[in-house]
Amino acid sequence: MREFEVPMDKRLVLAPIDEAHIDQLHACGGNARCTTCRVEFLAGEPDQMTGAEKAVLAARGLTGVRLS
Ligand code: FES
Fold it and tell me: What local confidence, expressed as pLDDT, does residue 48 receive?
């Protein structure tokens, strides 16, 4: 992996695709419905989580991952 810059207003699910040209599954288009964009942060996990992300992760019993 490598570092790449992401514009402030870029939805994170699109950052690997648009900015680093890395394929990232995102079946629902980043709308917190499918969880195919789930990622594990090794460092620097954001403190904030949207209500939609929190709800879908809880509904699926997912821990230790975030939705990109
Ligand atoms: S793309 Fe569906 S939850 Fe992220």
Answer: 92
